[in-house]
Design goal:
Beta-Lactamase; Heat Shock Protein 90; five-stranded antiparallel beta sheet; five-stranded mixed beta sheet; 48% helix
């Protein structure tokens, strides 16, 4: 059995230290020595306190062991930085467990795993995402500035055309009346588009605060309770949200959610159900909105977020475009699809705490 135990210790891919009740290190496997940068002779038989407590740069590492001694919990687990004797900084997963006999510590088992490579990979991914977000934001700002300028330049001519057309209509004969009314109708459409572009270009995060997720969803539903589509379709809401807070601009995010809710309602069955489900995983919150309607058309799946795309008789087709802009401003994503049974499905993913 001793040979088997020795073979296990020698081949464990994670580091293992066993500290006796007197504070001396009883066992240290090769992985622990490699990770911590010390020869086995420097560990076994020596006091762990003499080795580690004097290392001010590694206080977080030693605190995991101290907490196991001081707190009567089954185990303490943390990811901590660690500076090896060669000066290299590593990131370690450290699990310490104090074994007690009659409330006295008989041994402390410390398991160490080197997560440096994984941690650095995550940091690189985070930096790349941050750079991509800044580049995307810069491109978006250029387009928004252009759209704002175009909207401003078009608004005055449209107003003039609509105003003069109304004046001429008062004195027009029957033959001229129909084309003049057509001009007025088209200027109304242009005014709607210009207003939509102006609203889109004005979107900007003003104040980010911790907001309860359930409250966010309920506020969005309350905002649209008098919308014609909501009244006409009278949807039932089936909501499942964890009791948690996320960092968002509250007013903007309820606008984004309300746009998605309206879109889902407009393509939902009369008195159909809209299911809202939110889940937290890995620092992100995923909100899914599923209706009971016929789902997105192939064109809808391709173009739903494109400005001015709409399958409705009225409207500028900017609802989901605005929603996407708001979600993107919060460093999130929004996607659409059809469920297996061909119902519309919108997925919003937001970081709990944006970078």
């Amino acid at each position: 059995m001793e040979k088997i135990a020795a073979a296990i210790m020698a081949n464990l891919p994670v580091g293992l230290l066993v500290i006796g009740g007197d504070g001396k290190i009883i066992e240290a496997n090769p992985s622990a020595c490699s990770i911590l940068g010390c020869q086995i002779e420097g560990f076994v038989g020596n006091s762990w306190g003499d080795i580690f407590l004097s290392q001010e740069e590694n206080l977080e590492f030693t605190e995991v062991v101290l907490d196991a001694i001081q707190k009567e919990t089954p185990k303490i687990e943390r990811i901590t930085p660690y500076f090896a004797p060669d000066g290299k900084k590593r990131y370690l997963s450290v699990i310490s467990s104090a074994q007690r006999t009659k409330k006295k510590i008989s041994a402390i088992v410390v398991i160490i795993e080197d997560l440096t490579e994984l941690y650095e990979m995550h940091e690189r991914e985070k930096n790349i995402l941050a750079i991509n977000h800044r580049l995307a934001s810069a491109r978006a700002e250029s387009l928004i500035a252009f759209a704002r300028s175009v909207a401003h330049q078009i608004r005055n001519p449209i107003t003039a055309i609509a105003g003069f057309s109304r004046l001429i209509t008062r004195k027009a004969d029957k033959a001229s009346l129909e084309p003049l009314e057509a001009i007025i109708d088209e200027t109304h459409k242009l005014e709607t588009i210009v207003r939509a572009v102006a609203e889109y270009s004005a979107i900007a995060i003003k104040k980010v605060t911790p907001t309860n997720l359930w409250v966010l969803v309920e506020d969005a539903k309350h905002l649209i309770q008098d919308h014609p589509s909501i009244k006409a379709h009278a949807p039932s809401w089936d909501t499942e949200c964890p009791d948690m807070s996320i960092l968002v601009d509250h007013e903007l995010m309820i606008q984004a959610l309300s746009e998605v809710f309206i879109n889902s309602t407009e393509f939902n069955d009369i008195n159909g159900t809209i299911t809202i489900c939110a889940k937290e995983k890995g620092g992100d919150v995923t909100i899914t909105i599923t209706d009971s309607g016929p789902g997105f058309t192939p064109d809808g799946l391709k173009m739903a977020f494109d400005p001015f795309f709409t399958t409705k008789a009225v409207g500028a087709g900017m609802g989901l475009t605005r929603a996407k802009r708001i979600v993107t401003e919060h460093q999130g994503t929004i996607e659409i699809s059809n469920t297996d049974d061909n119902h519309g499905h919108v997925i919003i993913t937001l970081p709990v705490e944006p970078l």
